[in-house]
Amino acid sequence: MATTEVTRDDTPQLFGHPRGLAYLFTTEMAERFSYYGMRAILILYLVNFLLLPGHAENVAGYQTIKHLFEAMVGRTLGVQPFSSLIYGFYTGFVYLTPFFGGVIADRWIGQRYSVIIGAVLMAIAEFTLMLPSLFFLGLLLLILGNGFFKPNISTQVGNLYRAGDSRIDRAYSIFYVGINVGAFMSPIICGSLLGETIGYHWGFFAAGVGMILGLLVYLNALRTLPPDRIGRLKSKTAVKMPMTKNDWKAVFALILLCIPVTFFWATYEQQGNTMNLWAQSFTDRRLIPGLLSWEIPVTLFQSFNPAMIVMFTPLVVWFWGRQSRKGTEPTTVTKMALGLFMLALSYVVMAAAAYVTPAGHTTSWLWLFVFYAVITLGELYLSPIGLALVARVAPPQILSMMMGLWFITSFTGNLLQGYIGSFFSQMDKTHFFLLCAGIGFAAGVVTWIFNFPLKPILERKGPLQQPELAEPQADPHMEPRPAE
């Protein structure tokens, strides 16, 4: 399904895409700087400081939440398992609230106001985290803010293009690069330069500043963006249309794909949790042992994945283009299955690293380098493809809600990720990584099987129904096209 809000021919262009894409790219880059900066130091902050005796008792709600988690898992929780569950629940609920944020945007306040509300809440949350006693309040505000922000910034990328515009997949790949430019910089600034060196609270401060900058960019971008669905309904430039049979088929297909994608996130998101702990305690972080003894900061490893995404994306897009010209490009669902198989392979690499490392010793950081290279390729075959798929096939009447539903896979996946990670300190590390590999492989098989019944629904050319549009009218908020 093509998106509902479309760009007219006179929309200002930049590098072959609507100028609004550059603003959305920058806004999301700043927001991801904020999110990944906080995420890079979260598990280390919990394990090394906040939950240690002498500090934990001063955190509002600590005892209540700890008892709740212990009742859920049926065992007494030490610092690492409790930290892992907090990390998992936070990163999970961050991706549950976008579903409700999408519903609110679709029905009442629109995508623009939703993004603004979300950005304000997240900025306040990051500064709240600077106060250890208000840690759980800060997490709650981040969860609520992301719910308003996340689905409504992503759908606005699709809004820039006409129904059937072939540039939309490339637009989401460009947008995904923006996400990862921010994710690359934030562990370095919030983690390595501030969090690990000066104090974790300064890492949260930098994340808050990043969110404010993102908000300012977005406010400046509004004049380049087409009106969202709520705005057009109010101005009578859109008409309400009922859902068709094909629309419901598309909704069902997307819901079905949510099942294996959940397991992708359950293992992928170990990067910020147990992989951070592996880098801290089980990795020889000397750049060149015996020659250059400088140690790679723990949080710097969190920059490997986004840096590789920026580097690998042009190669992957080129490779898909070459396959397309030869008629051998995989379907969207097949690409997602391949992404899951590569995810499984990345954890086989880590299982090998743990297997060849004697007890009490550390292993070369190059194992982590290979791990991140393989898991990054898997991500490129699944995550941006999924965003573009939702934008392309979701019915326009519930587009933001469906984008939010897609993010629920990250909610369920991160809850499972936190539970899996709680066994990291108890399990043999080889067995732990093989467990992650097995989960990813099984999900890949299920996704590959799904390709056969879902291909006729998801690979149709052009929109499944006409957009909810009347004749386009002049929009006073759009910049005029410059003279040729």
Indicate the topology.
Layout: E1 13-14, E2 17-18, H1 19-50, H2 62-73, H3 79-93, H4 97-128, H5 135-159, H6 168-195, H7 200-221, H8 229-234, H9 245-268, H10 274-281, E3 283-284, E4 286-288, E5 292-295, H11 304-326, H12 332-356, E6 363-364, H13 366-380, H14 383-393, H15 399-421, H16 429-458
Parallel strand pairs: 3-6
Antiparallel strand pairs: 1-2, 4-5
Helix pairs in contact: 1-3, 1-5, 1-6, 1-7, 3-15, 4-5, 4-7, 4-15, 5-15, 6-7, 6-11, 6-14, 9-12, 9-15, 9-16, 11-13, 12-13, 12-16, 14-15
Describe the structure.
With 484 residues, this protein is mainly α. The chain has one domain (16-458): Growth Hormone, Chain: A (Up-down Bundle). Helix content is 68%, strand content 3%. It has 16 helices and six strands. The chain has helices at 19-50, 62-73, 79-93, 97-128, 135-159, 168-195, 200-221, 229-234, 245-268, 274-281, 304-326, 332-356, 366-380, 383-393, 399-421, 429-458, and strands at 13-14, 17-18, 283-284, 286-288, 292-295, 363-364. The protein has a two-stranded antiparallel sheet. It has a two-stranded parallel sheet with strand order 3-6. Helix 1 (19-50) runs parallel beside helix 6 (168-195), helix 6 (168-195) packs antiparallel against helix 11 (304-326) and helix 9 (245-268) packs parallel to helix 15. It starts with 12 loop residues before the first strand and ends in a 26-residue tail after the last helix. The model is unreliable at 1-10 and 461-484 (pLDDT under 50).
In short:
The chain has one domain: Growth Hormone, Chain: A (Up-down Bundle), CATH 1.20.1250.20. Helices cover 68% and strands 3% of the residues.
